[in-house]
Specification:
Elements: E1 2-6, H1 10-22, E2 26-30, H2 33-41, E3 47-52, H3 62-72, E4 77-82, E5 97-101, H4 106-117, H5 126-136
Parallel strand pairs: 1-2, 1-3, 3-4, 4-5
Length: 137
């Protein structure tokens, strides 16, 4: 099972990505919404969960990215990791959305990712499917 981590701050992205990989997750990283959409469009990645910052610099923010991604991949689970809670003012959370406010405990984020993967029911493809098949027997 693969997750897509979208964060424009390279230090945060690399640190969080490394932590999530050490927790046993397959992590693919993107620095902005445009790159994230290209990664999501490639079925060989088998992305099941999108972990995104809200502030992504130029282009779409994390909320727009998540909306566009869910339109194409309705089984995608989304976790927002943000230091800008004001961007969520008035936002009604759907069952497929979670939020972590920075600073947060990376272990709690990893636990949440594992929990939401049980909610994602779309087909698993690519490297994630091979790893899962190996683990199953």
């Amino acid at each position: 099972m693969a997750i897509l981590l979208v964060e424009d701050d390279s230090v945060v992205r690399l640190t969080l990505g490394e932590f999530l990989e050490e927790a046993g997750l397959q992590v693919i990283e993107a620095s902005d919404a445009e790159n994230a959409q290209a990664i999501l469009a490639d079925p060989s990645h088998g992305i099941r969960v999108l972990v995104t910052d809200l502030d992504l610099g130029a282009g779409d923010d994390g909320l727009v990215l998540a909306t566009k991604a869910r339109q194409r991949w309705p089984e995608l689970q989304v976790i927002y990791a943000t230091g800008s809670p004001e961007k969520l003012t008035g936002h009604s959370f759907a069952p497929w959305e979670r939020v972590f406010y920075k600073p947060f405990n990376p272990a709690a984020l990893a636990t949440a990712v594992f929990a939401v993967t049980k909610l994602a029911t779309g087909p698993r493809v690519g490297p994630a499917a091979r790893l899962e098949a190996q683990a199953m027997g």
